[in-house]
Every structure is written in C-alpha cells, then in structure tokens.
Amino acid sequence: MKYETWKDVVRFSGPDALRAIPGYHDEALRGSWAGHRSSRLNRQYRVIYRVVRAEVTVDIERVSAHDYRR
Fold this sequence. Notes:
Layout: H1 2-13, E1 27-28, E2 37-40, E3 45-53, E4 57-65
Antiparallel strand pairs: 1-2, 2-3, 3-4
C-alpha cells in the first residue's frame, strides 16, 4: 500500500522529503486545516498530517477519500 511507503519516507528521510517526490503532491493546507499538510496517496486518498516538532514527530490526522471538510 502506498501509505506504508509514505510512512517509510517520513520515518527515514523526514517530512520535507515528501515535497521532493512529485507523486505525493505534498502541500500546506489553508482555512480550517491551516497548520496541516496533505499528501496524495492515490487519486482518491489523501493523508492529512501536521509536523509537531523538528524531531520528525508527525501526527496523522486521517487517511481518507479526498474531503477536507471538518
């Protein structure tokens, strides 16, 4: 599953490495999701996360179909 690969990238290279991989389309979110980021796992699923500290502590908020409404 692409989520497992996503976790490995974060674990071994840090969340900044996600921006270097075009397929993830990693981006900062705005509005009620300000302070969070989104990575595309496939055409339907996204992982929404936030980086808590520079020590690569990442809180996964959700992995779900593309719907950013709260």
